[in-house]
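Q: What residues go here?
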C-alpha cells in the first residue's frame, strides 16, 4: 500500500499511562494514538495506518477498560492517521465535520 520495506520490520510498541484516564500508544517511526477513557465510553485520537495496528490499539484498550469506543478524533488528513478508521470505530455514527474558518 504505502509502506516501505523498512516499515515491515517488527517495531517496539508501548502503551503508556499518562494520567488516570489517558494512555499513549506509540510505535517506532509510526503514528501515535491517544486513548482517553471517559465515564461511559472511550475516545481514540488518530486511528493508526493499518487495520493490524488498529487491532493492537484495541487490544491494549481492552486491557484497561471494557467501555465502548464511541469517539475517534482525527488530528490531520494523512493516511497514517485515518486509514484504519473502519477497524477502530466500526459502530460509531456520523463523524463530526471539520469546522470552517
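A:
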Amino acid at each position: 500500500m504505502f509502506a516501505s520495506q523498512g516499515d515491515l520490520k517488527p517495531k517496539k510498541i508501548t502503551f503508556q499511562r499518562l494520567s488516570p484516564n489517558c494512555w499513549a500508544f506509540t510505535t517506532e517511526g509510526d503514528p501515535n494514538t491517544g486513548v482517553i477513557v471517559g465515564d461511559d465510553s472511550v475516545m481514540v485520537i488518530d486511528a493508526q495506518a493499518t487495520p493490524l495496528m488498529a487491532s493492537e490499539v484495541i487490544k491494549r484498550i481492552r486491557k484497561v477498560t471494557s467501555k465502548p469506543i464511541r469517539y475517534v478524533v482525527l488530528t490531520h488528513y494523512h493516511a497514517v492517521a485515518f486509514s484504519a478508521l473502519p477497524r477502530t470505530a466500526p459502530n460509531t455514527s456520523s463523524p463530526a465535520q471539520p469546522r470552517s474558518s
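A: Context that may help when evaluating the design: Residues 93-101 have pLDDT under 50 and may be disordered. DSSP finds three helices and five strands in the chain.
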